[in-house]
Amino acid sequence: MSLRKVALISAGSTSYGKSLLTGRDLALLAAKEALERIEMMPYEIQGAFIANAFGLSERQGHLGPLIMSGLGIPDIPASTIEAACSSGGSAFREAYINIAAGVYDVMLVVGTEKISHLSTEVATTYFTFGSDYLFEGACGASFPGLYATMAIAHMQKYETTQEQLAQVAVKNHENGMKNEKAHLHKRISVEDVLQSSIVAYPLKMYDSCPFSDGAAAVILASEDYLKKNGRDESISILGSGRAGGYGSLHSRDDMTSIRSSILASREAFNRANLSIKDVDFAEVHDCFTIAEIIAMEDLGFVERGKAAQAVEQGRTRLDGDIPINPSGGLKSKGHPIGATGIGQVVEVFEQLTENAGERQIKGAKIGMTHNVGATGGSSAVHIFTRS
Amino acid sequence: MSLRKVALISAGSTSYGKSLLTGRDLALLAAKEALERIEMMPYEIQGAFIANAFGLSERQGHLGPLIMSGLGIPDIPASTIEAACSSGGSAFREAYINIAAGVYDVMLVVGTEKISHLSTEVATTYFTFGSDYLFEGACGASFPGLYATMAIAHMQKYETTQEQLAQVAVKNHENGMKNEKAHLHKRISVEDVLQSSIVAYPLKMYDSCPFSDGAAAVILASEDYLKKNGRDESISILGSGRAGGYGSLHSRDDMTSIRSSILASREAFNRANLSIKDVDFAEVHDCFTIAEIIAMEDLGFVERGKAAQAVEQGRTRLDGDIPINPSGGLKSKGHPIGATGIGQVVEVFEQLTENAGERQIKGAKIGMTHNVGATGGSSAVHIFTRS
């Protein structure tokens, strides 16, 4: 049985950073931008998914009806999907499947997160609820520590250096300078990264993404519906993949790779009937600099152990042969947990519709998103092309 | 485009009540029971959804990878779906759609909730996070108060009496006596209900479901897969519906009805090409006695304003013409939030496979589940038949 063709027809997002608004209000702003961009009235939306991980910290679950009511379409069903930091990619996939299956013709997916009402300590604690808490968070292993462990393993196995990790941050901050919605607008040098305060050795402050509030929204539609309604197809979704992995880092045989990324990308490429060589750029999950290095190797952009060198050579810059995180990535654009995976899709939309301004990758035809939950307990990968 | 046929092939659940186990462990027990019941090895599972609402109260989000790892199948993707008290029904629907679309052939859906580590006050507060918290929970309107408001409205409009509400509780407690996994095993009288302490007038303790821990699991498969593997089809899923409604009660025109229930059941019946007259029994969302009355009218079992009378006449008892909540319902079986909607499907499985023991509805061929989030911000309805 074949799935229907599904198009990505609009995208919107708030600026990422610190906000005084609630998660629900941020979600409404992002959704409104996506709707207005294509002059779509809310009543054209038939179903929705919300991506959110820590809404309970705002004393608010069950976000769907609140967001749909805020848009004036309370009847529209909207469940929340959570898979820690890959909540967005997971929610996007289910919307894709709902439309591909013919259940709905037009869907809205909104990712949102508000975290700045919490102190850094409390926010870090909340984030550890995405780990295997009993064996990790409760034992003092927060995400910087877990990713630091992966970084150490990668440095030992492949002689990756702290300078090379720093170059990921420098490149992503450079891209973020060109993204007005990015959380961090600050050009940094390798020296700045190396001299920044240690968060969990070898990861320093500038190896780490910031705590961001923000929301991102996209609209998907069946190509049948678009033809019938004389709307532009914009972007086609070619493939979707989702996979799991051990929730806890200590359960894994290898800490230099995230198996769920490998499996999710394999599924996505199989469904798209493409290979990594066909991809012109990618938004990957760089919650820490090491995460981008590991993603490049897991997704197959380079051979094992060669990612750091590729970064060093400038191959992943906007003008390189494999641009990674043109948006600035989680590192500079920011990481509002539930919004992140949807925000990656927003960037693909901007790039493939040639609306990325100064950070536009010229002639890009195929883009991908790669969204990881925690240290790899979940991954979601999607592949897109311009029509 | 037509969806593939999907079968419900197994079901398992923990006892509902107070447990010392964590939500993840409860989920594993329920999943294990569902797998063992049909002698299925975990590796046959290709994808999963977890239904859970308040895992963060246990300091644990991102339950999917933990539960899949516990089953020995860490690679299997498993996002969490949340829609307050209708998390289970919503998760079930997405698994149904994934299989119907041909994305997977075999899926596990596990609903789980652990709440008894919290005091009654804190648990009640957590539950209000499923309401429109800023306008309801934060203003002191917890769910007993919100459903009490609906009860008052129904009493004023239809002359429904407290005695009639009590009869819902008496009937569900009677059914729960025949369900060894039910939380409350206590035969009660109308007098007992009327004399129990007032929670929020006119709702009394025995009008209210208990706080339960528990988990429930079901396994779904494509009929293609079952034929290929020589497995029994057991139960067919005929229709699925999901809808939203205003998150806050004060936004609605009418408090005697839940519009999302009406819309979700309309979708489910349309997809099944059936009407309510075809249904032999239903598991409906009776978080309070008034909720069962409203559900009977919204689903169309009786005319508006006639449900209380039908209960009074014994029509909804096990031996009545429209048995409602043979399991004991949320009222007596219990209401472990994320598990509830899946637990309803477990009861349909027991009934349609004639494994319901003393509470078996003889000759039942078509059953339905009706799962409501909060005061109706979300609803999910499913219709099943024996093959």
Order of helices and strands of chain A: EHEHEHEHHHHEEEHEHEHHHHEE
What is the CATH fold-level name of the largest domain in chain A? Answer: Peroxisomal Thiolase, Chain A, domain 1
What is the CATH class of the largest domain in chain A? Alpha Beta
Largest interface: A-B, 68 and 68 residues
| Low-confidence regions of chain A | none
Quaternary structure state of the chains depicted? homodimer
> Strand tally of chain A, please?
11
Question: What is the CA–CA distance across the termini of chain A?
Answer: 23 Å
CATH superfamily of the largest domain in chain A: Thiolase/Chalcone synthase
**Biggest sheet character of chain A:** 9 strands, mixed
Fraction of residues in helix of chain A: 25-40%
Mean pLDDT of chain A: 97
What percentage of amino acids of chain A are in beta strands?
15-25%
Number of helices of chain A: 13
Inertia-based shape of chain A:
globular
User: What's the architecture of the largest domain in chain A, going by CATH?
Assistant: 3-Layer(aba) Sandwich
Number of domains of chain A: 2
- State the secondary-structure class of chain A: alpha/beta
For the CA atoms, what is the radius of gyration of chain A? Answer: 19 Å
Name some characteristics of this structure.
homodimer; nine-stranded mixed β-sheet; two-stranded antiparallel ribbon; Peroxisomal Thiolase, Chain A, domain 1; 36% helix; alpha/beta
